[in-house]
Specification:
The structure holds 2 protein chains of 2 kinds. Chain A is built from no helices and 11 strands. Chain A is mainly beta. Chain A is globular. By secondary structure, chain B is mostly beta strands. In chain B, about 0% of the residues lie in helices and about 55% in strands. In chain B, strands 2, 4, 5, 6, 9, 10 and 11 form a 7-stranded mixed beta sheet that branches. In chain B, strands 1-3-8-7 form a 4-stranded antiparallel beta sheet, with no helix packed on it. Chain B is globular and about 35 Å long. The chains are: A mainly beta, B mainly beta. At the A-B interface, strand 4, strand 5 and strand 9 of A face strand 5, strand 9 and strand 10 of B.
Chain lengths: ~110, ~110
């Protein structure tokens, strides 16, 4: 059974800091890995999708990497801003017709002005 | 249009009420999903529809009844709910079921009194 872990559960950093959010998974037979952002009481916003054949994806100040062999993904946020404060979830998408995303519990990020 | 819409945003209902949640997407996606999310937890999959047919039911109690009238619309009918069913209900869609990127709606905040 796939398990996805995100540690730590919460992180507080000063504005302007570059930071890395970690995601680990136990079963490397994944098709994609998706990073989401969730603001309190809101839906999930897809940030980046990395296909298993890719090593990384970039969007603006965000860069996500994937190492299937070690079961790890990282989300790099450059020059963090208070507006980046949110919960960040990673989810792995299995191969095949099974549509179940397996989510980590998320990392709640607070960027202090 | 890369948006999934959900109505209503908030819903308060008594345990004897019948209500429905609505989800709509116009991205041509053929898979649609219902998730339930409790506070500070990741989303939990409830149902998956593929080409308007129910393909996955995660052993959800029968007081939740999904319906997919067409490829753009997904409903969740609620009847005789319990207070512990209070949660954020999220709808998502993807091109097809399986290993495809999922796009989430903003959610409906449900409170059962």
């Amino acid at each position: 059974k796939q398990e996805v872990t995100q540690i730590p559960a919460a992180l507080s950093v000063p504005e302007g800091e570059n930071l890395v959010l970690n995601c680990s998974f136990t079963d490397s037979a994944i098709y994609n890995l998706q990073w989401f952002r969730q603001d309190p009481g809101k839906g999930l916003t897809s940030l980046l999708l990395i296909q298993s054949s890719q090593r990384e994806q970039t969007s603006g100040r965000l860069n996500a990497s994937l190492d299937k062999s070690s079961g790890r993904s990282t989300l790099y946020i450059a020059a963090s801003q208070p507006g980046d404060s949110a919960t960040y979830l990673c989810a792995v998408i299995p191969t095949g017709a099974n549509s179940k995303l397996t989510f980590g519990k998320g990392i709640t990020l607070s960027v202090r002005p | 249009d890369t948006e999934v819409t959900q109505t209503p945003k908030h819903l308060v209902m008594g345990m004897t009420n019948k209500k429905s949640l609505k989800c709509e997407q116009h991205m041509g996606h053929r898979a649609m999903y219902w998730y339930k999310q409790k506070a500070k937890k990741p989303p939990e999959l409830m149902f998956v529809y593929s080409y308007e047919k129910l393909s996955i039911n995660e052993s959800v109690p029968s007081r939740f009844s999904p319906e997919c009238p067409n490829s753009s619309l997904l409903n969740l009918h609620l009847h005789a709910l319990q207070p512990e069913d209070s949660a954020l209900y999220l709808c998502a869609s993807s091109h097809h079921s399986g290993s495809y990127e999922q796009y989430f709606g903003p959610g409906t905040r449900l409170t059962v009194t």
